[in-house]
Amino acid sequence: MGKYKLTYFNARGFAEVSRIILKLNGQDFEDVRVDSETWPKMKQDTPQGKLPVLEVDGKKIPQSSAIYRYLAGEFDLYGDDKEDKLKIDIIIATIEDLWPPMIKIAFGENEEIKNAAKKKMEEEVIPYVMEYLTKELKNNTNGWLVGKRMTLADLIFFTATDQVAVGFPDFIEKYQELKTLKNKISEVPQIKAWLEKRPVTVH
Ligand SMILES: N[C@@H](CCC(=O)N[C@@H](CS)C(=O)NCC(=O)O)C(=O)O
């Protein structure tokens, strides 16, 4: 088995970008998917009582964003210089603005709250995020969001748009440049192979 063990639930969720980084770099990692019966028994053995957790050389790393940033550093996906790294971090933070309304849509206390979050997502949040990403992609002129090659920013974009599509199936159609980028990422051979073989899950 490989050097890395990534433990999460049977979902793409907070773990998928890290799985993709590992696959992209030929790492035959242990892809552990915990079921709801097993989780309470192992919760206390995790650093923060939450998943995902990445184990590397006996060290257990919690927090999805710490995990994918660590892996991006290990596998040279964090840009070529400080400027690139800053742009990547801004893109990630912008994409993260999608999650509060998405969480309200899923877990809002009543239909009114859920519908208001859906409207906000459609009318404000999706356009703001996708228009910013389109601008960065066009400004960059290399066919990637940042710098001369694929970086963590492209991979976070890739996995985030999959999650948004669960609730808004055709939302990317309005953003053709980003659709082209998404298709290009899905054709990278190691990613393509993983997409074909990974477990099919809703989230
Ligand atoms: N900020 C954490 C959040 C982790 C988190 O909330 N994980 C959820 C699953 S998505 C979890 O472990 N839930 C089970 C529990 O809290 O017992 C991260 O990004 O890793």
From TrEMBL:
<comment type="function">
    <text>S-crystallins are structural components of squids and octopi eye lens. Contains relatively little if any GST activity.</text>
</comment>
<dbReference type="GO" id="GO:0006749">
    <property type="term" value="P:glutathione metabolic process"/>
</dbReference>
<comment type="similarity">
    <text>Belongs to the GST superfamily.</text>
</comment>
<dbReference type="InterPro" id="IPR036249">
    <property type="entry name" value="Thioredoxin-like_sf"/>
</dbReference>
<dbReference type="InterPro" id="IPR036282">
    <property type="entry name" value="Glutathione-S-Trfase_C_sf"/>
</dbReference>
<feature type="domain" description="GST C-terminal">
    <location>
        <begin position="81"/>
        <end position="203"/>
    </location>
</feature>
<dbReference type="InterPro" id="IPR004045">
    <property type="entry name" value="Glutathione_S-Trfase_N"/>
</dbReference>
<dbReference type="InterPro" id="IPR040079">
    <property type="entry name" value="Glutathione_S-Trfase"/>
</dbReference>
<keyword id="KW-0273">Eye lens protein</keyword>
<dbReference type="GO" id="GO:0005212">
    <property type="term" value="F:structural constituent of eye lens"/>
</dbReference>
<feature type="domain" description="GST N-terminal">
    <location>
        <begin position="2"/>
        <end position="79"/>
    </location>
</feature>
<dbReference type="InterPro" id="IPR050213">
    <property type="entry name" value="GST_superfamily"/>
</dbReference>
<dbReference type="InterPro" id="IPR004046">
    <property type="entry name" value="GST_C"/>
</dbReference>
<dbReference type="Pfam" id="PF14497">
    <property type="entry name" value="GST_C_3"/>
</dbReference>
<dbReference type="InterPro" id="IPR010987">
    <property type="entry name" value="Glutathione-S-Trfase_C-like"/>
</dbReference>
<protein>
    <submittedName>
        <fullName>Uncharacterized protein</fullName>
    </submittedName>
</protein>
<dbReference type="Pfam" id="PF02798">
    <property type="entry name" value="GST_N"/>
</dbReference>
<dbReference type="GO" id="GO:0004364">
    <property type="term" value="F:glutathione transferase activity"/>
</dbReference>
